[in-house]
Amino acid sequence: MIQPPDRSYDARVVSIPPRILIADDESQLLRVLVRVLEQQGYTVISAPDGKAAVEALRGAPEAIDVVVIDAAIDPEGAGPVLEWVAEEQPQIGVIVTSGDQLSDPLRSRVLANDGIFLLKPFLPKALVQAVEGLVTEPGQWGDE
After folding, report:
1. pTM for this prediction
2. CA-CA 20 to 30 A from 141: which of 31, 66, 100, 128?
3. Model confidence pLDDT, tens digit, residues 98-126
4. Which of these CATH numbers, 3.40.50.1820, 3.30.70.1230, 3.40.50.300, 3.40.50.2300, describes 19-133?
5. DSSP string, the chain
């Protein structure tokens, strides 16, 4: 007779580290942001423009937890990416970065997505804190 597994011990379920999509058309900045988040243990996907960001989201929307995107990314800015997230995967956290203040329409989209705005230049710590604020329960994926 097959016995059911012993469940009398406390098992800790460890989930996969959150996946972050970073989209920025400034290649040096993109590399730095990727490195900063990878050093924190995140799985990071990068996109050099808004079109590639949407393609990455469509390819694995259930696996991406946070999108970090430059407001003025080519070809059409962050708007189309934010619209896609709001319509298709509203649970994805959003961080919009820019060297300027956001326009009213873009600010409204960020707020509608419960997103975060980071004014460039920002410290790596600010990005890490923003991402941590959007992922579920800090420490749940092994950083306790």
Report:
1. 0.82
2. 31
3. 999 999 999 998 988 889 999 999 999 99
4. 3.40.50.2300
5. -PPPP---S-PPP-PPPPEEEEE-S-HHHHHHHHHHHHHTT-EEEEESSHHHHHHHHHHSGGG--EEEEETT-TTT-SHHHHHHHHHH-TTSEEEEEESSPPPHHHHHHHHHTT-EEEESS--HHHHHHHHHHHSSSTTTTS--
